[in-house]
Hints:
The chain has 2 domains: 1-47, no CATH class; 61-270, MetI-like fold (Orthogonal Bundle). Helix content is 67%, strand content 0%.
Amino acid sequence: MRRWLRLAVLLLIVGVVLYPLIWMIGTAFKSPEEIAGNIGLIPEKFTPGNFTGGWQKFDISFGRFFLNSAMVAGLTVVGNVVSCLLAAYALGRLKFRGRGLWFAIMIGTLLLPGHVLIIPQYILFKTLGWVGGDWPYLPLLVPHFLATEAFFVFLMVQFMRGIPRELDEAATIDGASPYKIFQHVILPLSRPALVTTAIFSFIWTWNDFFRQLVYLSDLRDYTVPVALTLFIDSTSESSVGPMFAMSLLSLVPVFLFFVAFQRMLVEGINTSGLKG
Length: 276
């Protein structure tokens, strides 16, 4: 009885968690009239035309917004992985004066809400001519190539501290420089941490709305989260179905990216990267 009771509680929790997703999937296939009058999960009449209508809703194909999001998310992943790995190697493995102070300052930045920094960052990027220029993605991409994501730096530092320093000492005895140690010792063993950083960077950037709304003003430059807001205005009540259809499609890249690297994500969180 206890086992069946636990199973029932777990199924109830799963149902509550998945209800919004199931409701969104059902709404993506409902007609405008049914959306307004039917609160059920399963549509009475399937309307696959919501996907075609949403894809061709604007003067620009919705695929352009997917390409913009993929470019921003992909370059953000590259920037975070490369820059945070180098910063973590310096803070976690190298010895230099003031290392503890710089690490404490970096951790202290985690206490600042991201929205507090929006205004000074906007003023800085505006002064540099990056806002509204020919390449509007610079404010969204450049900071990630400068190791500004303290969470990922901290994650990699803690991961590298679990790697025995005897490996560094053995490589040093063999004549390896710090660069060679990084290339042949630290980098191969840090793959789980790199994958974890890549997954979270991709998901957070793909779903980011506020920062992209602040810096992107041209329709051709919009990403998927910003473009979804275009379906809702004072005259577009009938666009709710296409909006949910495009929202459902926007979940596919995140789901596939997570499934592809799920095993490495778990390994990066639960292990130190050493076996045998």
